Amino acid sequence: METQTQPPNELLGHSSNSGARRQHQHQSQIQNQHQNQQQQAAAAHQHQNQQESKNQVALKIGLIGDAQVGKTSLMVKYVEGCFDEDYVQTLGVNFMEKTINIRSTEITFSLWDLGGQREFVNMLPLVSSDAVAILFLFDLTRKSTLNSIKEWYRQARGFNKTAIPFLVGTKYDEFIELSVEDQDEITGQAKKFAKAMKSSLIFCSTSHSINVQKIFKIILSKAFDLKLNIPEITNMGEPILVYQEN
């Protein structure tokens, strides 16, 4: 009769301890995974609370004026920070958004750009209605586009009597190449228009990034009645920036 040989006690002990360690390691891994999941859930909950605690504000801005004055270029420059020299005609309405954060407030600029051709004037209510501010744009090198502002202003006011008006002269980089006499005439006429409209007056250049950001900072300051420390520019031959009420 064969006698079954039992393994030495020390081997039994070694096998038992190894199994216990593996079980302990497995339990530790489960605990670590559980802790990680709890931490991730807590972080997600905290992020959600932070998002919910933020004030969210949407500001609709209308851009109106004749064709080829630079409405779309200004919008793209502000939202995307780029300038395209190739002209692409706006057919109907262009729309873009940009969100900025100021302290605990998330502000979204909703920009509506109306094509300057007269066949799109029936879409003017879509752009101007409910707008907090309306930018009336003209080309500083074409006097006819400034003269057109009267009619654009009259029609837009028919749909929105409370929007904050801005008279914006574009292509300042080309404007300064004009004769001094032409610059004086256009600047003087623009100042008269702005006064009649009770509007800010800003000369800008999207290709050279002149006064583009300042336009929207001034919109914010006027929309929320905030103090703004941007110096005004009133001298002839400089990029005009007049926004403070007299």
Automatic annotation (TrEMBL):
SUPFAM superfamilies given in the database record: P-loop containing nucleoside triphosphate hydrolases
InterPro entries registered for this protein in UniProt: P-loop_NTPase, Small_GTP-bd, Small_GTPase, Small_GTPase_Tem1/Spg1
Coiled-coil portions: none
GO biological process: cell division; establishment of mitotic spindle localization; mitotic spindle orientation checkpoint signaling; negative regulation of protein localization to nucleolus; positive regulation of exit from mitosis; positive regulation of signaling; regulation of protein localization to mitotic spindle pole body
PROSITE patterns from the UniProt entry: RAB
Amino acid composition bias (Polar residues), ranges on this chain: 1-20
Region of interest (Disordered), residue spans: 1-51
GO cellular component: a single term: spindle pole body
Bias (Low complexity): 26-51
Domain of life: Eukaryota
UniProt key word Hydrolase: no
SMART domains: RAB (SM00175), RAS (SM00173), RHO (SM00174)
Keyword Transferase listed: no
Keywords: Cell cycle, Cell division, GTP-binding, Mitosis, Nucleotide-binding
Pfam families in the record: Ras (PF00071)
GO MF, one annotated term: GTPase activity
Classification via PANTHER family: PTHR47978
NCBIfam families membership: small_GTP (TIGR00231)
Name of protein: Septum-promoting GTP-binding protein 1
Species annotation: Pachysolen tannophilus NRRL Y-2460
